[in-house]
Amino acid sequence: QVQLVESGGGLVQPGGSLRLSCAASGSTISIYTMAWYRQAPGKQRDLVAHILSGGTTTYADSVKGRFTISRDNAKNTVYLQMNSLKPEDTAVYYCYAWNVRSYWGQGTQVTVSS
After folding, report:
1. Model pLDDT for residues 26-50, shown as the tens digit of each residue
2. Is 78 helix (H, G, I), strand (E, B) or coil?
3. Which residue in 57, 100, 105, 107 could disulfide with 92, CB within 3.0 to 4.6 Å?
4. What does the alpha-carbon distance between residue 37 and residue 33 come to, in Å, rounded to a whole number?
């Protein structure tokens, strides 16, 4: 059983930056594929980025070049560095872990607005 707790969300102006953290407990995440998803009001939950246990990363086209996913297995934490934020990035961001079974965090709100 893995518990995931996201933090770092908030209100930011367009062009600003935020760093989301996902702290895991209950199991080491080193063998897990980790990912960030987001869900805007009235829309489906979409993949933002994922990182394999070996470190390979993949990004949604909408965030390529602006967002960076990383993992610190020693701290059992995954990060999402978000730069050059746009209003369309506004959503609840969820952490996700997968290895045979999948787990979700409770989400953290990111609002990009002037």
Report:
1. 999 999 999 999 999 999 999 999 9
2. strand
3. 107
4. 13
